[in-house]
Amino acid sequence: MVVPFFVAATIAVIATLFAITRTNAVHSLLNLIVAILSLAVIFYTLGAPFAAALEVIVYAGAIVVLLLFVVMMLNLGRQAVAEERTLLTTRVWILPALLAAALLVELVVLLSARAPAARNSIVGPTEVGVALFGPYLVAVEIASFLLIAGIVGAFHLGRRLRPGSQGGQAGAPGAAVGGTPAGGVARERRQAAAGVLLGEDHPGGAE
Amino acid sequence: MYSLLWLIPLLPLVGFLLLVFFGRGMPRTLAGIIGAGSVGVSALLTIIDGIGFLSAPPAAGFYAERLWSWVALPGFTIDVGFRFDALTLTMMAIITVVGFLIHLYSTEFMAEDGEFALFFAYMNLFVASMLLLVMADNLLVLYLGWEGVGLCSYLLIGFWYRDPENGAAARKAFIVTRIGDVAMLIGFAVIVANLGTLNIQELMRRAAGEWAVGSTLPILVAALLLGGAIGKSAQVPLQVWLPDAMAGPTPVSALIHAATMVTAGVYLIARTHVLYALAPPVQLAVAIIGLVTLLVAGFSAIAQVDLKRVLAYSTVSQIGYMFLGLGVGFYSAAMLHFMVHAFFKALLFLGAGAVILGQGDEHNMFKMGGLRRAMPLTFVTFLIGVASLSALPVVTAGFYSKEWILSGVWQSPHDGPLMWLLAGGVGVLLTSIYSFRALFIVFFGEQKIQTTHRPGVAIALPLVVLAVLSIGGGLVQFPPTIAKVNLFQSFIGPVFYGGLPGGAAASGAATNGGAVAVGGAAAGGPTEALLQIIASALSLIGVGIAYLLYRRGLPSHARLGEPAGFRGLKAFLFSGLGFDWLYGRLLVRPFLAVSSFLKGDFIEYLYVAIGAVNSGAGRLLASAQSGKVRWYLAGLALGAVVAVGLVVWL
Amino acid sequence: MSAQLPDYALVLAGILFGMGLLGVLMRRNIIYILISVEVMLNAAGLAFIAAGSRLAQADGQVMFIFILTLAAAEASVGLALIIQFYRAYRTLDSDAAKDMRG
């Protein structure tokens, strides 16, 4: 199990390095996927097959794909790539690199102060499930709250605001999160809500 | 008749009060009568008292009167009192008589002026103050008069106050004399601290008794009083105010800056002569200052363009002669020169005023000319005045007084012959050159400006009287080589050389002047005669030079009599040998720089700085809120690194 | 040797976390910042797995699951915000949003 670990570790490090230094966002994301996959391998070598599977399915399969979708939706084009190149000068990364290196050193120092462990065993899905439905039950429920909040928040925040007429009708006092003074926005919300139901919201296009 | 002594300064004072309060609505005739009349009555009283003094001199040689007590502290008293002796009488006679003549002249000269009454008010106040100065028997009352004349000088120089330059000239006069006044006040303080009195005779008695000749205290006191005298009498280094003081009306220049106020310094030194006898270095300094001044002013005068400025520098120079006389211990000679100088200098100024009036307020000599035929009386009197100033031999009063001083200078143990050479030789030459230069330029040649105003009686009469005095005023004291007439010496000598307890050392016999003055004839006959001939010859040579340059014109003359070439030298002489420039650079500019710095209230900068530092620090901290996400992330990361580091290493 | 794998994994987690931090501080484009944040979350998860492996407990994987959940929610909300950001500022430069500077 040692050799796969180190191979995967090397791949992970290199892929992450590429992920953060590419100028093209899609390239960066693809490198991120590689890194994630190698991390999954590492999880497996560490005796956590369930985690490895989840890593691939959720992280690489959902999160990074979502990121990819948004990147492609924004459709930045070639000039963005060129711009990115100009932004990444030495002056920009040298100090963060030093900072990160300092942190790394500190972590290594901390970690090396402990004696190596003796045991190494595989923790299977069964055990994880038992733990989830046992002591961590409340946490699971809260995590589900989190997910609902995430869904609603993402939906709400990602909506396009229609520039309606200002003032005018005192619209329905929509119970908006963080109320706005202009009645137009409240009308907005109703329209948007109606729009969603009717499938009116158009992604992309000029604002 | 001495009981009316107090009226003499009082009458002009009353005249001042009347004119200053009621003068505005007064008709001019009345204002003129009050103004000139008060001085006239004072002159009359002075003459009466003078005749009384001469015919029946009081026992101790003086008459003292105590009017009232001013300060009465235990151990220190000041009384307002008068001392009337020969010196006082001389001064008073000049002040009142010449003053009256000038007041009379002013009734015509200032006839067109809008503030006629105010002019006479100031002039009366001046005469009152000056009389107080010379009649005072203690230094504080003297100082009262001293300040009074300084004030009137300021008021009168800046009389035409609407022109800011006149105001600047008045301020300059006041400030420069103030420098001397401060020294004088410090001298008074030292006197009070050490001798306990300001009564002049008393302090001289105590000083002669307690202080050794040449010790520190008399030197200090004499030097400080000399400072005051230098300021008031416009000697080097404080002579810079007098030429600019010509901004005032001409009668002011005649009265104040020729005949009386500027001689207050001479009077002060003469009055406190014992102190100077006790401080030989200071007395020598007086002589040297007089010598330097007479040369500096003489050189400046030969390059002047404004008629009155020539006369101003001439005044400075002649007072230098008086200081020279005082410095060699020859007080009587100095006082005679004062008297004669008052005559001819007042005459010259009044004549210049008539010329200026007749030429439509023109002051530049080179724009005038040919007034010999247009204003004949003025010409004749001016000629007499110039002749007296140049000390033309025998016929002028100036000859007698100047020769008397020079004979004393020759015998001074401090390089007498050298001083004589400079004062008698170069000085006399310069004097006649610049004075006849003015005469030739103004009165000869072609007339360029039409005469607008012929002198009336009020102008002509004083001119004539002063001209007569300029000729005959010297006949009271002949040099021994000509005749044995010692009227003046026997009149004023006892003030300086006799009757003073303390012995010969205090009475000025320690200086060489004593040996000369007691007899007035101690100098060797042939030497003295030779010196007189040389000096007279030099004055005549000076006339000749002036004639050649300005009447005939040397071949190299291109225009109006200005010497060709020597531009830089001419500018240097014109500016009064650069004293104004020097003081401007050395004193005025740094002072103005400091004052403008202080005007900005620099202490406030401290408080402003506190505020600025605070707001700067605030701005600095506010710049940490850059609004950029990366900036905040960097802060987070840095904080995390530091926190973990603390855990790791502490 | 294999017993020391968790320790090496921790070191690896540190390295990956540092690189993620580097990416966050270095890039101006918001997308990349988000990507770097994901990298950091991943590294944190790796650390938990390593710890759980070392202690032979399920807690490590449980924490990893929670982290995963968190990452998912955060990524979706973040992307929604990025879309709004792009609509408002017409650029993905994070420095463009400095209206709240003080």
The succession of helices and strands of chain C, N to C, reads HHH
What's the number of extended β-strand segments of chain C?
Answer: 0
User: What is the largest interface, and how many residues per chain?
Assistant: A-C, 87 and 73 residues
Largest β-sheet summary of chain C: none
Rg of chain B over CA atoms, rounded to whole Å, is 30 Å
Tell me the number of helical segments of chain C per DSSP (H or I, 4 or more residues long).
Answer: 3
Question: Overall pLDDT of chain B, averaged?
Answer: 83
Share in helix of chain C: over 70%
Compressed to H and E, one letter per element, the order of chain B equals: HHEEHHHHHHHHHHHHHHHHHHHHHHHHH
- Chain oligomer state: heterotrimer
End-to-end Cα distance of chain B, whole Å, is 110 Å
Report the end-to-end length of chain C measured between terminal Cα atoms.
55 Å
* Outline type of chain C: elongated
Protein topology:
The complex is a heterotrimer of chains A (207), B (650) and C (102).
Chain A: H1 2-21, H2 25-45, H3 49-74, H4 78-87, H5 90-111, H6 125-133, H7 137-157, H8 183-198
Helix pairs in contact in A: 1-2, 2-3
Chain B: H1 7-22, H2 28-55, E1 62-73, E2 76-85, H3 86-109, H4 116-135, H5 139-157, H6 164-195, H7 200-210, H8 216-233, H9 241-244, H10 250-259, H11 264-271, H12 273-277, H13 280-301, H14 307-327, H15 331-358, H16 371-374, H17 376-389, H18 397-410, H19 416-443, H20 457-472, H21 487-497, H22 512-519, H23 525-552, H24 567-574, H25 579-599, H26 602-622, H27 629-649
Antiparallel strand pairs in B: 1-2
Helix pairs in contact in B: 1-2, 1-4, 2-3, 2-4, 3-4, 3-10, 3-15, 3-20, 4-5, 5-6, 5-10, 6-8, 8-11, 8-13, 10-15, 13-14, 13-19, 14-15, 14-18, 14-19, 15-17, 15-18, 15-20, 15-21, 17-19, 17-20, 18-19, 19-23
Chain C: H1 5-26, H2 30-55, H3 59-89
Helix pairs in contact in C: 1-2, 2-3
